[in-house]
Write a structure and sequence with these properties.
- There is one protein chain.
- By secondary structure, the protein is α+β, with helices and mostly antiparallel strands.
- It has one domain (4-190).
- It has six helices and five strands; from the N terminus they run βαααββαββαα.
- It has a five-stranded mixed β-sheet.
- A hairpin with a 2-residue loop joins strand 4 and strand 5 (126-134).
- Helix 3 runs antiparallel to helix 5 (148-158).
- The chain is globular, with a radius of gyration of 23 Å.
- The N and C termini lie far apart (67 Å).
Length: 191
């Protein structure tokens, strides 16, 4: 996984303006992104509805707006303030990021994937771009969950260790042909 710091234009909320942010926020954001890479990739897949609409990967990105809460645990130094789907055009002004996304897109498609999903993390004026190469939706065994945002927020809030995405159980189809049998019995037989 590669990620980039970027200064794409983002709305600055009142929550962001009132925060006291550390001078090395970008380092904390990079570590946070690395710690939660599986969770964030899963959330991007869910938010973009890639199982149902794979073409969303070429139009939109998941923006996760974070607030700083500090602390000693790198996985819990931020909390999710909100999530939004944004147009990928938001990255057009950063040629280095665009080139990396395109390189990953090409590599994903050559290996049978659908492309590169983009997850953007924003805290104050610092952002992190996380491109994620995505396999064909038919190969992805993650369950589709409509409550993905709630799970994302709760997981980050609790910091309960590595995230394991909910998977669609692979239960082999077993067909039993049962021949009904009839047997005569009386009420006394049941006692």
């Amino acid at each position: 996984m590669s990620s980039h710091n970027s200064n794409f234009d983002s709305r600055e909320t009142s929550a962001h303006r009132s925060e006291v942010l550390p001078a090395d926020l970008y380092k904390h954001l990079r570590k946070f992104t690395s710690t939660h890479s599986t969770l964030l990739a899963w959330a991007g897949f869910q938010a973009l509805e890639l199982k149902r609409v794979p073409s969303n990967i070429r139009k939109s990105a998941l923006l996760v707006e974070l607030t700083w809460r500090g602390g000693s645990d790198p996985g819990r130094r931020f909390e999710v303030a909100s999530t939004h789907l944004v147009s990928l055009s938001i990255l057009a002004s950063d040629p280095v990021v665009c080139a990396d996304i395109q390189r990953r897109e090409d590599r994903s498609r050559r290996s049978g994937g659908i492309g590169t999903a983009v997850i953007l993390l924003q805290c104050g004026r610092i952002s992190q771009v996380m491109p994620v190469e995505v396999d064909s939706p038919a190969k992805v065994t993650w369950s589709t969950i409509t409550e993905w945002e709630d799970l994302l927020c709760r997981w980050i809030d609790c910091g309960t260790g590595p995230f394991e995405p909910p998977y669609v159980p692979k239960i082999p189809l077993l067909i039993l042909y049962i021949q009904p049998s009839y047997q005569e019995f009386s009420i006394n037989d049941l006692k």
